Amino acid sequence: MLRLYMFLAILGLSCLTFASPPRPEIKKMKYWIHESCPSRFRDFDSAFKSALRIARRTWDRLNSDTDDNFHNVFNAIFKVYEEEDDYKDRLQDVKDTFQRVWSLVETKKRKEADIRVYCDNDAIYDPRIQNSNPDNRWHRKKDGRYYDPTNKMYSDGKNNLGPPSCSDTSPSAGVTYYDEGRFPWSSWHYSITLCDVLFSPKFTPEIARLNPLVIDEELKARDWNRFAIAHFSHLIAQTILHELTHATSKGIIRDTPLGYSYEWHNLMAMGRKDALTNADSHGML
Ligand SMILES: [Zn+2]
């Protein structure tokens, strides 16, 4: 027993000697895209690749010592400033989030994918409803919970009885579901649904021109200098990036504070603690 205490004491001391322990290696996660995505939106693949490219570009710019402009945006969103002691650590946290996203690799095999992406608007099979389609991904169970037998996960983790979010009364653009795995050592896996509102928001043509959905050549050629960053929140790639920050962070990056986690004015108003764990703050950067 004493030996154990001595061992623990030495371990405690050795922990103290390392002021900042080495960061865990960033695991390369795999993603898989369900056929509902290219059939729901023709340019889906390029929108997804754009999200990964944006993550890479953000990471590159955060790594630059001379890109003051971008570091100012980083300070404004995350309220982390260079004169603070933990500046380097917090900057590294944000960099790691983007690195986890850009280093994702695609697989064609669903079973080996950590992240499975669907664009089926969270279709539900409800045996109480006549002609409900049993091929739909979510199944309403007798206890009122919603289960996805293909990916073996509930829509609400272990908590309440909420239906999958695309079918909510105020539907989201995208949702990330996760399953922690049956054992502490099993790896988590995730599913992302990109909902119908993402692909066909209710815009008039003039508003649609100001709120682009995809990054194309025409969009790049326009002069956006006088436009607020909020106009880009409708980009499909932005929502994909938002969901990927949830799905690559083991639930650390959430939507915080609840109810005020989206939209530029909320991002500007929130404190650093919320900003550092908020998906949209990362998505907007
Ligand atoms: Zn979110």
From TrEMBL:
The keyword Transmembrane does not apply. GO terms for molecular function: metallopeptidase activity. SUPFAM superfamilies: Metalloproteases ('zincins'), catalytic domain. InterPro entries: MetalloPept_cat_dom_sf. PROSITE patterns: PROKAR_LIPOPROTEIN. It comes from the Eukaryota. Residues 1-19 form the signal peptide. Keywords: Signal. This is Lysine-specific metallo-endopeptidase domain-containing protein. It comes from Lophiotrema nucula.
